[in-house]
Amino acid sequence: MSTKTIKIYVFKRFERFWHWAQAGLIVFMMLTGFEIHGAYAFFGFEKAVGYHTVAAWSLITLWVFAIFWHFTTGEWKQYIPTLEKVGAMMRYYLTGIFTNAPHPFRQTTLRKHNPLQRLAYLFFLLVISPVIWFSGWFYLFYGAWREWGVDKYLSLEWVAFFHTAGAFMVLIFFIAHIYLATAGHTPTSHIKAMLTGWEEVEEEESAATK
Amino acid sequence: MRKLFATVALLAAQALPCAWAATDPAPAPGPAPAAKPASKSTADHTKFKELQQAFKSGPEVTKACLACHTEAGKQITHTKHWTWEWMNPENKQVLGKKHVVNNFCTAVPSNYEFCTACHVGYGWKDANFDFKNETNVDCLVCHDTTGGYKKLPGLAGHPAYKEMEFPPKSGKMVKPADLAKVAQNVGPTSRATCGACHFLGGGGDAVKHGDLDTSLKNPGKYLDVHMDAKGLNFTCAACHATQGHNIPGSRYTPTAADKEAAHMRGKKDDTNAATCQSCHGQKPHKATGVRAKLNEHTDKLACQTCHIPQYARAQPTKMSWDWSTAGKLKDGKPFTVKDSGGHDAYDSKKGDFRYESHVIPEYVWLNGKVKYTLLGDPVNENGVTKINEFFGSPDDGASRIWPVKVFRGKQPYDLESKSLLVPHTAAGYGVRDDTAFWQNFQWEGALQAGAEAAGRPFGGKFGFVATEMTWPITHMVAPKEDALTCTQCHSKSGRLQNVKGIYLPGRDANPWLDLLGGLAALGTLLGVIAHGALRIYMNRKAG
Amino acid sequence: MLKFIGGVAAGVVLTGALGYGMADKLMFNETMSPFGVEETVARIQHNIQAAGNGWTLSGLRNPARAVQADGGNTLPVMMVEACSTKYSKPILNEDSVRFLSILMPCKISVYKKNDGKVYIGTMNAGLMGKMFGPLVGEVMGQVAADQKKFLEMDPKKPAPPMIVPKAGGEGGGSGGGGGSNC
To answer: pLDDT tens for residues B477-517?
Structure first.
């Protein structure tokens, strides 16, 4: 395997702040959300609802900033899906990773996510997020349904169903995400990158793309 | 501080033979009893010539009252308090005390002289009572302020006019009412005057309602935040705002969901003035943040559901009554058995009872429609007969979840007609009556006499059927700090565990989604653990 | 070696944590009563009076009353207090454990919970006694055995009347209750 590595700057300061703030909020919302769902008692229902709501508004605020940031910096392009090398990535996770085969994807500042990541994040953005945000929005504004004229079409049971379904998807995403964070060049390289912004990558290839 | 701990409640309330109308003095309004507080009334009845006479009877007093209050008699004679009869316009059922059967003392018709101690009139001793005669109206029972006016069961609505032994053969003497004094001291109704009947319904203190008993004459804040004698000190009429002697708020047609704004002076509003919303409006919770969510509960919950966490918080209320065991005698004599708290557990006259305090209500959907099982209506021999059925559903937009007291019992029914029977229980004062159950303890004669008085057939064979009577809980509103907490409903085995038709977060979940989602998450977790373990293993092998 | 020590340390920490978490369940006991609050109290009171070994009732507290007097609500709770000089005397006579007088008199709490059911709360006198040496351990062991008898209730027997101490009794509600104060 390559003996030399170099460091490249992948995640900018706002991006890192966004990631960790979002991570904290999502974990906290899962914790409070599943309590509201009745899975366990920790904060108590009333506090759990209160915290969950505050966290939701915080996350919305964070997203407003993040969306603004993505569009002004052009970083949104990082999520454009590609099927190129998807097969190679899957083969890598299924076999190559065990034999220390070289990572098929060369990370650069302009292409910081591997093709599977792109697909996964796009899935999060286009499927999980709408499910959880729309259902959550109606859940939160249950009292305004009549005013909005939607009380005839909605039932709390189904709103809660989709919100819970979204929550399970987030939970699954979260488990896989944490694990795959250890599947970089070294087990900690992705995590370090998310903390410091600097990712270790193999030398010659990254040098070439630079 | 010691005093707070000093006594354990000596639960002294004694069940009376049957509702015993007795008024106690209204709580003294101020700390200085020496000087009479300035009255806001424009009339001092002690100065009225009409009232300065030696009244010999109640009707004589009424005649004097009506001399000035010319329309009062007419007004009263149109009320349920007078007619004991009322037709439900919804389903045309004829209700009222004269007609309904309950599972307490069951029914009035054969027992007029006794039961009419709680009639706002004089002389109703049989079916021939003259409902047109306004001088038969009893003004004093509601307007007494002295506490010296008592109507005794057995006297057909009259108070004692001479000293008499009461209850008969008890050795206790009751002094006659000083009618002139009572008449000269009339005033607005009070918790004591309304309570003289309504606190003692069903045969004694705290028997019937559970949320109305004599502890409300002088309640602490804990018991009722509005009637708190040292605080807001509401009278009954503060909420049951009465006009022309017509009192709003009746459980025959409860206002299950008041969707009106708070009543405002000058604005025409014919809706029930006795609801919570009539003062508190539709968004009663002023809080911000998560507590603001409370206002969003008003589309499904009655206010009472959260704000009356338990009823009978000052003294126990009767929860069940089994007539089928009544009539047992010891050495040929009736007897009573007390429970550990000193309340009747058995009475030869009535059967077995169970009392309970701090009762957690049951909860039901109620849209205000109620149907009674009246005499002649079929009973459910193998199950439970509902004396009054509360209707409601989560989807009709008119229902709210209400706290109720469900009073359970067993009472006689006719094996032939399969409908309820009513025993003749009590006779007039001092009357020897062989068919009265409370004198002879014989069912056949009592049921025959009861059926005759009610104009019903009786086949001669009877059994006992299980019955349930439902009472909306609406009094004894606790301070807001003691309202239910969220978790008390939003949990798997909470207060509303048996209420169907709503999705209640924390209680409900789609089991398939939970199973599928849970398995998927677990699968993912196991998958990444296996994947990681394999990586570590392969790495070691290679390294 | 390091792993072994680490393992032992982890085991100790885990046991400690488990013990800490379960201490309340070990030190105190909660059982459901088939009867109402008053009847449960009454049956316990009569069991105490019939238990022998010098047991007398020393009071009946109702802390819910104080909450009510303050304008608030709590579900019914009553504390039956009992005392036996046979057991209190040896402990009170031993200077090193005299502080245990704070556990006197012996208390049994009867209360209703939000599920509408009635529960009986007791202290695990046997286990607690063991923490204070052989003298206390033996006495408390006997107390625990007697306490078990206090809670035996035969539904076939009729409900006895609750024994209510006279109002204004000495000791703030822990008045006579039919027995001597000890």
So the answer is: 999 999 999 999 999 989 999 999 999 999 999 999 999 99
For residue C167, is it within any domain?
no
Model confidence pLDDT, tens digit, residues B156-168: 999 999 999 998 8
Question: Sheet of C106-112: strands edge to edge?
Answer: C28-33, C118-123, C106-112, C77-84, C55-61
Nearest beta carbon to residue B524 from set A50, A142, A175: A175
Given CB atoms, is A41 within the 8 Å cutoff of chain B? yes
Three-state secondary structure string covering B81-96: HHHCCEECCCCCCEEC
List pLDDT tens digits, range A162-183.
999 999 999 999 999 999 988 8
Task: Count Cβ atoms within 10 A of the Cβ of residue B162 and give its class: 0-12 exposed, 13-18 middle, 19 or more buried.
Answer: exposed
Cβ–Cβ gap B486/A160 under 8 Å: no
Q: Which residue of A has its CA nearest to B530?
A: A179
| Closest Cβ opposite residue C168 in set B6, B358, B478 | B6
What whole-number distance in Å separates Cα of residue A48 and Cα of residue A54? 10
CATH of the domain at C75: 3.30.310.70
Mutate to test the interface with B, among C68, C111, C157, C174 (most CBs of B within 10 A): C68
Give the residue numbers spanning the domain of C134.
24-150
Neighbours of A183 (CB within 10 A): 19
Partner-chain residue, chosen from B4, B357, B482, that has the shortest CB–CB distance to C69? B4
Q: Is A40 on the interface with B (CB under 8 A)?
A: no
Contact yes or no for B345 and C161 at CB 8 A: no
Helix (H, G, I), strand (E, B) or coil at C170: coil
Angle at B327 between CA B326 and CA B331, to 5 degrees: 135
Interface test with B, best of A1, A34, A45 (most B CBs within 10 A): A45
Q: What are the residue boundaries of the structural domains of chain B, listed by start?
A: 16-26+45-260+279-488
Could you tell me if residue C13 is inside a domain?
no
Neighbours of chain C (3+ CB pairs under 8 A): B
Evaluate whether residue C80 is within a structural domain.
yes
**What number is the ipTM of this complex?**
0.88
pLDDT at A191: 85
Low-confidence stretches of chain C (pLDDT < 70) are: 1-3, 21, 23-24, 167-182
The domain spans of chain A are 5-23+72-209
Specify if C7 maps to a domain: no
Comparing A103-107, B136-140, B207-211, the range with the smallest average pLDDT is A103-107
φ/ψ of B164, rounded to 5, equals -145, 155
